Amino acid sequence: MSTIDFKPGLIQGGRAPGYETYKHASHFRTKDEEFDACKTGMWLFLATEVLLFAGIFVWYSIYRMMYPDAFRNGSSYLDWRWGGLNTVVLLISSYTMAMSINHFQHNRQKEARRNLVITLVCGALFVAIKLLMEYIPKMTGWHFDPTMSHAGGEALTKFGGLFYFEQGYGGKLPGILFSYPFATDPHENMWWSLYYTGTGLHAAHVLIGMALIARVWWFSRPGVENYGPKHYTGVEMAGLYWHIVDLIWIFLFPLLYLIH
Amino acid sequence: MSTLHPTSGSIPGHADDHHDHHDHHGPYYQSKGSFWTNVWDWCTTVDHKKIGVMYLIAVLIFFFIGGVLALAVRTELLEPVRTVAGQVTGQFFKSDEGIGKGNEIYNRLFTLHGAVMVFMVIIPSVPAALGNFLLPLMLGAKDVAFPRLNLLSWYIYFFGSMFAGLSIYFGGVDTGWTFYTPYSTTTDPDQSRVILMVLGAFIMGFSSILTGLNFIVTVHKLRAPGMGWFDMPLFIWAIYATSIIQVLATPVIGITLLLLILERVFHIGIFDPGLGGDPVLFQHFFWFYSHPVVYVMILPGMGIISEIIPVHAHKKIFGYRAIAFASLGITAVSFLVWGHHMFSSSTELAATIFSALTFLVAIPTAVKVFNWILTLYKGSIAMNTPMLYALIFLFLFSIGGLTGLPLGALSTDLHLTDSYFVVAHFHYVMMGGTIIAFVGGLHHWWPKMTGRMYNEFWGMTGAILVFIGFNVTFFTQFIMGVQGMPRRYATYVDTFQIWHVVSTIGSYILLVGFLVHLFNFIASLRGRVAPANPWGALSLEWYAASPPIEHNFEHEPIVKHGPYDYGEVVPFHCSEEDYPLADKPAGASAHTVH
Amino acid sequence: MNHNQPLRSAHAADAHGHAPGGFDETNPHGTAAGHHAHKHVIVSAFTNRVVLAVLLTFTALTVGLANAEVWIQQYFDIHFPTWVNVSVAMSIATVKAALVVMYFMQLRYDNPINTVIFLFSLFAFALFLGFTTIDLDNRGKVYAYKGGEVQVGGNRIVGAKTLDKPIVQQRREEFLKSVLAGDQAKFDAMKAELFHHRQNYHPRVEHSVSTSGTSRPRGGTTPGLFEAKAPADDGHGHGADHKHDSNSATKPASGSGH
Ligand code: HEM
Ligand SMILES: [Cu+2]
């Protein structure tokens, strides 16, 4: 592990970049103390996130113990390939987020921002896959098909074949909204309650994380450059948040997709 | 050796920021200009003292609302069949099916009383109001670690309470403050009152989390130079332990209430058996938070007592470390015992385990009580309002804690559960403990917060009235509970009437007591100017001016003695004549013990 | 205000454990905070890449093992208890999580207090989970007590009368009637088709009947739910409650199911 040695520099127009001029809040003794405080604060916040999701995981455990077959059946409607792909997408985004911090620490602004963009794209991809490939077909029976292979066929289609309808596939809705006809266990609707709440809460966190990263990206734009070797607290915070979102998915994925 | 010496500029990064504000040597609340300038200044302030005062005002307003609801409940119970609720409050709690239905109105009254008192008064009272004001001062810091987050917490609290207020405006809820399913998922099906109330509690939870987070980081990072962990006042230890609970337990009530809202809005089954859910699971989720949260309520109260007693007995606290570790011990144990609220709905195995663990709580609690008593022993006790409140606390809290034990024992609890015995128990700890400590603390720090002395005679009078009123109100409830009076009913069999009448009279005495305090506080604002250190105390908040300046201290303090070294150090701003040192032969013999 | 004035006599300092004068003003708490300026750790690009590679490998591994489990069970016609599946998946997930926390989140190089905070949250989670599970075996009784009013999987439909059968059954019958016009054969064919397709993306052990080699209990499903008779007859300990329940003849009672 290397440590930071930074070369001060000026940005366009001869102004000093934001990370050079940054002044820590006056009630801290040093900038490092502030950085440390922010990090500890963030970790405390992450602890609360862990315990927020603990509710979901405890719900999962209790219901899986009470209704094992409902969970086995429910899970069997999930395609591990989409879950797996989303895992890979999130892991890559975590890596690019970590690399972005690394680049900021070395004052490679362009590379750092590029990594932020990749992270954002991965986050968007994750949400898109969730929605188009999982939520919408399962809830409504409308499958998303970018190849449009069903256009003109006998299946109902929408948007010129971008979506096609499969009779009897949809209706896997949570709780009392459940209307899927082929359930084989009376508690299968409880599985879907859990599935949508758990993944939905997680997806909401993905969106919040993306907003934080977008904010970092905006304040690191040329001419502002708020983050650099001397000061990258904001990136670090957004990164930590992003990783905890990844962390929760690492557990959700096998628990939801790999039961049999 | 000097206690403190000015170090302005001697610490890197501090030399420059000391004089960058215009006029900052006046009191923190001094006017900044016109009325609206001041309003804007208070609404956007990041000064922990102002935020603390804002919390205090909000808490006192909600205390008043909760108190009115309580008096309505008590008044209703004057007669075995319902009288008042249907007639008087029926108009206020407008609801199609509810008007005139006394039972339902009654259910809403006690629910709202409980919810307002728990979520909007007791939880933020000591940590958020007094804690915000005092924590940085006691640590010798300029502010909390994240001042803007602190302001955000206040606004979150404010908006959360607005939601709760809306719910009350639309007619209130009747689920009990515990929101048990299926009450909370089936009552009020077409309106959104329950959702609003639950949402309010959910939002206020975030405020609590952020405050806790802020305090933990502040304690870790912003202690004054020279202040080690064991040089912190015990109030800080208590707030620190409280903050740990707030951070670790509150998210669970967050997810619980969120799921409850989802359950009501989307009808997905989680906790409601009618939707396929598991109501016992709700109880687990709820009490995983709500048992620890009773320690969020009482720990800071204990912290106040740990300050008041040594200051006004002018004696070194007995067993400093024992009390500090007892705070942490209570925190740890508080996560292990929630099942004692579910004895009647769980298995024998679970109930036995939880019962056994419940008794563990008594150990650290008793450690504290005994240490306080030993601090009083041979102290030179100044009998003033804070001290009187500390003594009242010791008395009432002991009763509250000891009656927790029969509730924690399985065989007795199955008879006492959901009876007035439980009601009396938790009022003895929550009101006799937390609120009493809070009012005592308010008197203790009033000179610091406002720069004025309250009137001692009226303070004592109020305290005595509160003490009498409290016991008359709630001791009767122990008796009724043992005789079988169930809680949460608007009507009862005639034999209980005498106790109910006595209890209601007690509640009116309580009201008078609190009104005396209120007028005393208001009058004090034009009263005698307070010196910087009226009690001769040794913790750092008394080193600051009364009231403190905007940045708390003229010079960053460096700590070279402990907060309880009475008799070894002359208190700030005091002379040795008034507070003689123990090893001087001329010293008054009262403060001899180290 | 006389705060410049020396205020105390000399002896108490040692009693209090402070080394008088030995106090470092830039590092008041004795932590590293005051000293480690310019010592922020940079986790190297190489480390990050290795961690990512390991994470991806472990993702493949957990999917592979889950599918292998199914294959083994079917090929050798044996039965794994459910904890095998869970513990394999959770062990791998834990390793992955540890890597993310230690390297991507840099906890390994960070102030130890942050590790402590994180571990505390996990500890609280463990308590939550652990103590919530210890009274599980009572839930059936609670449900049986409510058995007359409440259906398995819920029956309180918004804006409609309470269903008198479990929602899953209700929806199946509605579908059969309104979409398939009561054509049971078509229903069975659709179901078979869907379930067959499912094997492509979620392999699972399909035979639930006992064979000559093994005997498998049908754990989990509520016995007899879709048969005509009421499940209270199945001897789950709540039959007695239903004797007194006037509804039990017409409504299948709920039960925890196994
Ligand atoms: C030695 C300490 C304590 C013990 C052993 C104890 C034990 C108990 C038990 C067993 C119950 C459940 C009674 C029942 O519903 O059957 C209970 C209820 C309650 N306790 Fe305590 N307790 C203690 C201290 C406290 C403290 C310090 C507080 C708050 C500051 C508190 C607040 C409450 C409340 C609010 C309830 C009633 C909750 C409800 O059902 O609405 N207790 N206590
Ligand atoms: Cu409790």
Please give a structural write-up:
- The complex is a heterotrimer of chains A (260), B (594) and C (258).
- Chain A contains seven helices and four strands.
- With 260 residues, chain A is mainly alpha-helical.
- Chain A has a single domain (53-258), classed as Four Helix Bundle (Hemerythrin (Met), subunit A).
- In chain A, a hairpin with a 4-residue loop joins β3 (157-158) and β4.
- Chain A is elongated, with a radius of gyration of 23 Å.
- Chain B is mainly α and 594 residues long.
- Chain B is built from 16 helices and no strands.
- The longest helix of chain B has 38 residues, at 102-139.
- Chain B is globular.
- Chain C is mostly helical.
- Among the domains of chain C are: 45-105; 138-198, no CATH class.
- Mean pLDDT of chain C is 69; it is low at 1-38 and 209-258.
- The chains are: A mainly alpha (260), B mainly alpha (594), C mainly alpha (258).
- Chains in contact: A-B, A-C, B-C.
- At the A-C interface, β1, α2, α3, α4 and α6 of A face β1, α2, α3, α4 and α6 of C.
- β1 of chain A pairs antiparallel with β1 of chain C, so a sheet runs across the interface.
- The complex binds protoporphyrin IX containing FE (HEM) and copper (II) ion (CU).
- Copper (II) ion binds at residues 291, 294, 340-341 of chain B.
Q: How are the elements arranged and paired?
A:
The complex is a heterotrimer of chains A (260), B (594) and C (258).
Chain A: E1 2-3, H1 18-21, H2 31-66, H3 68-75, H4 80-105, H5 109-140, E2 142-144, E3 157-158, E4 163-165, H6 188-219, H7 233-257
Antiparallel strand pairs in A: 2-4, 3-4
Helix pairs in contact in A: 2-3, 2-6, 2-7, 3-6, 4-5, 4-7, 5-6, 6-7
Chain B: H1 35-43, H2 48-76, H3 84-92, H4 102-139, H5 147-169, H6 183-186, H7 193-221, H8 234-266, H9 279-313, H10 320-334, H11 348-376, H12 385-408, H13 410-416, H14 420-450, H15 456-483, H16 497-524
Helix pairs in contact in B: 2-4, 2-5, 2-16, 3-4, 4-7, 4-8, 4-9, 4-14, 5-7, 7-8, 8-9, 8-10, 9-10, 9-11, 9-12, 9-14, 10-11, 11-12, 12-14, 12-15, 14-15, 15-16
Chain C: H1 12-15, E1 41-42, H2 45-75, H3 82-104, H4 112-133, H5 139-145, H6 167-179, H7 184-201, H8 239-243
The complex binds protoporphyrin IX containing FE and copper (II) ion.
What's this model, at a glance?
The complex is a heterotrimer of chains A (260), B (594) and C (258). By secondary structure, chain A is mostly helical. Chain A has helices spanning 18-21, 31-66, 68-75, 80-105, 109-140, 188-219, 233-257; strands at 2-3, 142-144, 157-158, 163-165.
